[in-house]
Design goal:
Elements (H helix, E strand, L loop, with lengths): L6 H20 L14 H12 L2 H19 L5 H19 L5 H26 L5 H34 L8
Length: 175
């Protein structure tokens, strides 16, 4: 299923980073907020995992990150998990076929996923619950989350690149 035999170490390392970012995202006592909104750190980490890892690892990591995100921040368990899983899978496929793995690509994919996730979350709330009007949601929720997540993707990219570098085997002939 996974490409390398060091997958347990990779899963543990990414899991520790995921738990740390989850605590920053979801614990209000840490004060990690911008205009009262927390960033989408788990989504940025999922995009980073899809950016560097295989599509199967990225999909399973997206599922785990989405379920962890759903525990506290969502009304319905599974909505974020499905979005994170499919976005990680398709980003990984896109990077293998059409896009280059450069930092600008990571920023654009992260911001695109964040915007799409926030819009899908609002539409889901509009279908089943009674959300606030759209323009109030844009000004009070979407824009602060989007801007804060966009600023933090500059910090998450090196962390994911470090995790990938520590868990990737290199051939002895390269040295």
């Amino acid at each position: 299923m996974f490409e390398r035999s060091d997958t347990p170490f990779k899963a543990i390392l990414y899991g520790l980073v995921m738990l740390f970012l989850y605590l920053l995202q979801s614990v209000p006592a840490l004060g990690f907020r911008f205009m009262g909104c927390s960033p989408e750190l788990l989504l940025l980490l999922t995009v980073g995992a899809a950016f560097f890892e295989s599509e199967s690892f990225a999909a399973f990591f997206g599922l785990a990150a989405g379920l962890l995100n759903d525990v506290v921040t969502s009304d319905v368990v599974g909505a974020s998990a499905i979005f994170f899983m499919f976005s990680a899978f398709f980003i990984s496929i896109l990077l293998q076929t059409a896009l280059r793995r450069i930092f600008l690509t990571y920023v654009l994919l992260s911001l695109g996923c964040c915007a799409l996730y926030l819009i899908c979350e609002y539409l889901f709330l509009a279908m089943f619950f009674s959300p606030p009007p759209f323009w109030i949601s844009v000004c009070k929720i979407f824009l602060p989350k989007f801007l804060f997540s966009g600023a933090l993707c500059y910090l998450i990219y090196p962390v994911v690149k470090f995790c990938h570098g520590k868990t990737t085997r290199r051939n002895e002939s390269e040295f």
